[in-house]
Design goal:
The structure is a single chain. This protein has 7 helices and no strands. The chain has helices at about 5-15, 20-30, 35-45, 50-65, 70-80, 85-100, 100-115.
């Protein structure tokens, strides 16, 4: 059953041009209002599915709001469109780790590290010194 509040929320998410919705989503994301940002971005991604940036921000919003299955799906969709997107590769690894799937996460994390120029073994590089 749809309530008046749901209709107001939906119309807010859909209000304005794509550029205005992108700006609004960024504002909410930066304010750590990840669920609201995701609500805005969902429609934007549906409208422009070929664009990577809105989908990547949607994945980040899902990740930060603990919607890890949705984050994983968006990150995989980003990587289908842009297989060398280093941040999406890293985030996918982190998302899988957070879901308790370290064996699945490891290849993505290694690939992200290699893309960033870090060829050391996990846990032994300069970023891990003193850990």
């Amino acid at each position: 059953m749809t309530t008046a509040r749901d209709e107001v929320t939906d119309s807010y998410y859909e209000f304005g041009t794509a550029a205005e919705r992108w700006s609004r989503a960024l504002m909410f994301f930066e304010a750590k209002e990840y669920v609201t940002a995701a609500g805005i971005l969902t429609g934007l991604v549906a409208e422009v599915p070929e664009q990577v940036a809105p989908r990547l921000l949607l994945a980040r919003a899902y990740y930060h709001s603990a919607q890890l299955g949705k984050a994983e799906a968006e990150l995989r969709a980003v990587l289908v469109r842009d297989p060398v997107e280093q941040y999406a590769t890293l985030m996918l690894g982190r998302t899988l780790e957070r879901q308790g799937r370290p064996a699945e996460a490891a290849p993505h994390l290694r690939m992200a590290a290699a893309m960033a120029g870090d060829f050391s073994e996990p846990g032994s590089g300069p970023a891990h010194a003193g850990a």
